[in-house]
Specification:
The protein has four helices and six strands, in the order αββαββαββα. By secondary structure, it is α+β, with helices and mostly antiparallel strands. The protein has a single domain, classed as Alpha-Beta Complex (Aspartate Aminotransferase, domain 1), CATH 3.90.1150. A six-stranded antiparallel sheet has the order 1-2-3-4-6-5. It is globular.
């Protein structure tokens, strides 16, 4: 069963305190970001405080000169990116995020339905999957829920400082 962009947005929107933002021209957002989706934990509705860093994103196109190895310009292809934390990254990938630079060339970042280190943000403990489907949809839901829990925990820590 596929886990489409619409399914992902519906899933994360059902998590407590989540804000989903998909920039458009009307938002005044940079054109390059239009159509991509950013998922934040922002229970207080304070964009400045809550949107420091998303815990997940959906990217729908290549960013020329920066992020093209996933070949997202193919029709119907998108990439779900999730911040999984250092432990989660190592458990999923088999090595710590700091070791990724020496291993990045070993991955086919254009493959569909398989979790991989993020092609740009692996060292920050991000993973990705193109068009999650039968092989990765359940794991994507689990990783999104875990990423949300970590974001909520960070928010609570900041609020108590």
């Amino acid at each position: 069963m596929d886990f489409t962009e619409i399914d992902i947005i519906a899933f994360v929107s059902g998590l407590d305190g989540v804000v989903v933002f998909t920039p458009t021209a009307a938002d005044g957002a940079p054109e390059i970001s239009w159509g991509d989706t950013f998922v934040y934990h922002d229970p207080d509705g304070d964009p400045q405080a809550g949107r420091r860093m998303p815990f997940a994103t959906i990217v729908t196109k290549d960013y020329d000169g920066f992020d093209t190895v996933s070949n997202l310009n193919r029709p119907g292809v998108f990439r779900l990116n999730i911040a999984v934390g250092r432990e989660g990254f190592e458990k999923l990938v088999g090595y710590p995020p700091a070791a990724h630079a020496g291993r990045a060339a070993h991955f086919d970042y254009a493959v569909l339905d398989r979790f991989l280190p993020h092609p740009v943000y692996a060292t920050q403990s991000w993973v990705c999957v193109l068009n999650p489907g039968q092989a990765s949809a359940a794991q994507a839901r689990s990783l999104l829920a875990d990423a949300h829990a970590r974001a909520a925990q960070r928010h609570r820590r900041r609020a108590s400082e």
